[in-house]
């Protein structure tokens, strides 16, 4: 993962917070198999917030995905 961004403003419990992740293949070989990017909430016991599947990635390429975090079940306000 080369980048992760979340809303810059406060997110109220119950809102959906888009979390954007960028994954880059820094190696010299294409990754031809699919893999998952899993976003977890470390402050809530590591629960899974969302998953995005990436269907492989060429050497040197990057892929950006958005994981929409539904904060309805969160215990606290999310800030970044």
Gross morphology is elongated
| Termini gap | 18 Å
Count of helix runs: 0
Strand content: over 45%
Helix residue percentage: under 10%
What's the number of extended β-strand segments? 5
List unreliable stretches of 5+ residues: none
Average pLDDT confidence is: 86
Order of helices and strands: EEEEE
Record the strand order, biggest sheet: 1-2-5
Rg from alpha-carbon coordinates: 14 Å
Class derived from helix and strand content: mainly beta
Q: How many strands, which pairing sense, and closed or not: the largest β-sheet?
A: 3 strands, antiparallel
Could you write a compact summary of the structure shown?
The chain is mainly β and 80 residues long. It has strands at residues 3-5, 16-24, 35-41, 47-54, 62-70.
Notable features of this structure?
80 residues; mainly beta; three-stranded antiparallel sheet; two-stranded antiparallel sheet; 5 strands; elongated
Overview of this protein structure:
There is one protein chain. This protein has 80 residues and is an all-beta fold. The chain has no helices and five strands. The protein has strands at 3-5, 16-24, 35-41, 47-54, 62-70. It has a three-stranded antiparallel beta sheet with strand order 1-2-5, with no helix packed on it. It has a two-stranded antiparallel ribbon with strand order 3-4. A hairpin with a 5-residue loop joins strand 3 (35-41) and strand 4. It is elongated and about 40 Å long. It starts with a strand and ends in a 10-residue tail after the last strand. The model has no long low-confidence stretch (mean pLDDT 86).
